[in-house]
Write a structure and sequence with these properties.
heterodimer; A: alpha/beta; Rossmann fold; Alpha-Beta Plaits; 2 domains; four-stranded antiparallel sheet; 12 helices; 13 strands; about 35% helix; about 30% strand; globular; B: mainly alpha; 11 helices
Amino acid sequence: MEAAIIADELTKHYRVKVRASGLRNALSALVRPQYREVRAVEDVTFRIAPGEVVAFLGPNGAGKTTTLKMLAGLLYPTAGRARVSGFDPWTGGAPFKSRIALVLGNKQQLLWDLPPEETFLLNRAIYGVSARDFRTRLDELVALLELVPLLDKPVRQLSLGERMKCELAASLLHAPDILFLDEPTLGLDVGAQDAIRGFLRQYRDRHGATVLLTSHYMADVTALAPRVLIVNRGRLLYDGELRALVARIAPTKRLELVLANGVTTEQLAAFGEVMEFRFPNATLAVRREDVAAVSARILANLPIADLSIQEPPVEDVIRRAFQETDPFTNDGSRS
Amino acid sequence: MTDSPPTSVRPRWIARYAALVRAGWLVDLQYRAAVSIWLLWGLIDPLISLGIWWSIAAGGSIEGYDRPAFARYFFAVILVNQLTLAWDAFYIDNWIRGGEMNHRLARPISPIHEAVADNIAYKLRTAGTVIMLWLLAAAVWEPVRIPIEPARWALAAIATLFAAAIRFLNGYATGLLAFWTTRATAIMETQYGISLFLSGRIAPLSLLPPAVVSVAGVLWFPYMLAFPVEILTGAITGVDAYARGFAWQVFWLTAWFGAYRVVWSRGLRHYGAVGG
């Protein structure tokens, strides 16, 4: 089966005008403009199978959104190729655009002054959705996203989270095969983020859509995407399972202890690296393969009121992955 | 999800335009106060010009224009200007530089259709008001009455349609320069300034110096306003004059359509998709 999304050595370079501050420099730039080349995306290659959910991770300016926009056909690459749902994104035209949805967390398509239902009707006509399909799909999306109270309120009066729910509904009415989601939970409160994640999970399970998303919220990634692509400075650093990345970057787990009686730091250090100790709480870092044995020894030898085993925070793992220039060159995990 | 067979191409485009015009109409309805002010603005400067020329013509006709001819001319300017008005350069510039173009590019329909539909919606809303105002004025003021000549009115309607298309494509193609420059709206403002004189907005073209009229005659400006106005008011007559005017309209319509196609296809390749 052909991959739903294929990126093959995708590259995007921009030329941007540079100018120092001050009137003199402003005048000089008029006469002699100077440019700098920005290498936004550099030789990025990956494949995504139909129905897969993949998260693009990277710091600001890493090249995530640029790659997403190239795959959605908005940006032409400087070099490289792509196939999305069997189409070349830049020449696929209307048949290609009818197979994808692009949801941008910070720029929405909803008609600002009108109730969301007007955008739904407009998209129905633009995508040529039959009346029967429109009704069936809208009913499903309204139920999954709990849109009933929002349908007749002007978009400008909706909260950010409500607008994102309506934005998703507007983007999915044509039943796209491929969803490009750029920061779909940007700026939303925790409850709204959860609602959007829950919806995306259910939608993907029901319809088998392929999803490529970018997000700065690790909760989006852990809830939705078993596989991650990590980019930094335009280069793909890692392509693989999030779990494997966590195990590789963070070879230790955290043992969080609540002590019943006093012990010394030296006593704790005999079991692992002491990360924090403030009686009665202590946190030890212990190698993954030793966690079971060390836990048993601690319970047998120390006055323990409570013990729990934690993965290190994913945010820390990802931050460390960004900082390393290319930690995966030797293990073949980059596709 | 269920799948029904797609609708055939022609009904699909009719449905698309109906939905786009409807959305444009509903949005305009939300901004009815602003639309009324824009409409008023479209009335004010031709009426000021009329006032000035009315005073100047107190002593008799100027280059064939007496007071009633000036009144008819500037009433026709109000109507044709309202029907050919194009503001798209400002929207397109904003879409491109502010990132609003992104979701439009992800749709299976070119953004130009949304702009065309917005134009139709706005003009449907405002042209009726202008015609009503003209009829009211004509009921009480003889100088602005235009003889009922269906053939001439039909020609004026066709010329107005061409003029609207030229003006729209001129504005749209100019707005698309925002793919390269932050000065697209300044370029549009410059054209607007020139058009005040060369399109016949401030004065009938025949009152301008002959050299200026010669230059204007080969540019697109008179064919966006003065030509349909002069047909409607009877300032030009005869097959030769009509044929020459329509030939220039077809030429500039083709030229600006070509410019739009070139700027659009090259602009997309240059696009940086800023602002999310």
